């Protein structure tokens, strides 16, 4: 479903998602950890990337090394076939930690320093206008989904059958997890916002709304355009 091929391979910081691997490594950020300030602070980025994301990868690798049949899948295949893993303990571990790896890899890539944020392509803007009325209305609906996600999770802008939709998932679930996420929430991610407290608490404390509003300043629209166009 999701095709991250040649186009996104040029985007710094993305892991090699199509390589079948038994062991994943932490992707490097495509920018300095301080480059998203003041919207996301360097301390949050260092912890979030260097500790939280790294921990998901370590736990994912541990589960994969104990389950060689699953380890032959690409990261994308692992997401879309997660529901087929029969051992529920293994499935839960990979759902949380493999999902964490996919989601965070996507997240770093969908952000850029404010000066390099860019704008939606004509094609993406047309789709946004068709589905939501305007870019501002899409942002409002997306932020609303981010605010309504109780506890930890993600807000998403997805495309399915050419139509855009906003949704959210709990924990480290994502819109690729067929059979685990409701069919209505499945699609190809265009944008994704981490609303776990670890993503914003150091700088924003409990003010998720301020974090979600500031985040629009550092959306990497070039990456979003590629996801939409791929
Ligand atoms: Mn996170």
Total domain units? 2
Structural class: mainly alpha
Strand order of the largest sheet: 2-1-3
Bound molecules: manganese (II) ion
Overall pLDDT confidence: 91
C-alpha end-to-end distance = 10 Å
Subunit arrangement of the protein: single chain
Cα gyration radius (Å): 17 Å
Verbal overview:
The protein folds into two domains: 16-31 and 40-109, Orthogonal Bundle (Helix Hairpins); 114-229, minor pseudopilin epsh fold (3-Layer(bab) Sandwich). It is built from ten helices and three strands. The protein has helices spanning 6-9, 42-66, 68-71, 75-80, 88-109, 122-132, 135-148, 201-204, 208-215, 221-229, and strands at 153-160, 163-170, 188-194. The chain has a three-stranded antiparallel sheet, with helices on both faces. A hairpin with a 2-residue loop joins strand 1 and strand 2 (163-170). The model is unreliable at 1-12 (pLDDT under 50). Bound molecules: manganese (II) ion. Manganese (II) ion (MN) is lined by residues 48, 52, 104, 194, 196, 198-199. Manganese (II) ion binds at residues 48, 52, 104, 194, 196, 198-199.
Feature tags:
Helix Hairpins, disordered N terminus, 10% strand, minor pseudopilin epsh fold, mainly alpha, 230 residues, single chain, globular, three-stranded antiparallel β-sheet, 2 domains, binds manganese (II) ion, 10 helices
């Amino acid at each position: 479903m999701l095709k991250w091929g040649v186009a996104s391979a040029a985007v710094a910081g993305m892991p090699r998602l199509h390589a079948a691997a038994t062991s994943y490594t932490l992707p490097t950020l495509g920018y300095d950890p301080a480059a998203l300030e003041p919207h996301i602070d360097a301390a949050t980025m260092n912890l979030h990337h260097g500790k939280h994301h790294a921990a998901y990868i370590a736990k994912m690798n541990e589960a994969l090394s104990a389950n060689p049949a699953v380890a032959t899948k690409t990261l994308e295949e692992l997401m879309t076939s997660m529901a087929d893993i029969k051992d529920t303990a293994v499935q839960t571990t990979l759902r949380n930690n493999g999902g964490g790896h996919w989601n965070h890899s996507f997240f770093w890539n969908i952000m850029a320093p404010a000066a390099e944020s860019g704008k939606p392509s004509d094609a993406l803007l047309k789709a946004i206008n068709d589905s939501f009325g305007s870019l501002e209305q899409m942002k409002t609906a997306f932020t609303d989904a981010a605010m309504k996600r109780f506890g930890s999770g993600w807000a998403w802008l997805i495309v399915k059958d050419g139509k855009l939709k906003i949704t959210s998932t709990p924990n480290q679930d994502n819109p690729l997890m067929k059979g685990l996420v409701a069919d209505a929430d499945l699609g190809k991610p265009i944008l994704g916002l981490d609303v776990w407290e670890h993503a914003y608490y150091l700088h924003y404390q409990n003010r998720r709304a301020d974090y979600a509003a500031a985040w629009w300043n550092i959306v990497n629209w070039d990456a979003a355009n590629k996801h939409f166009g791929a």
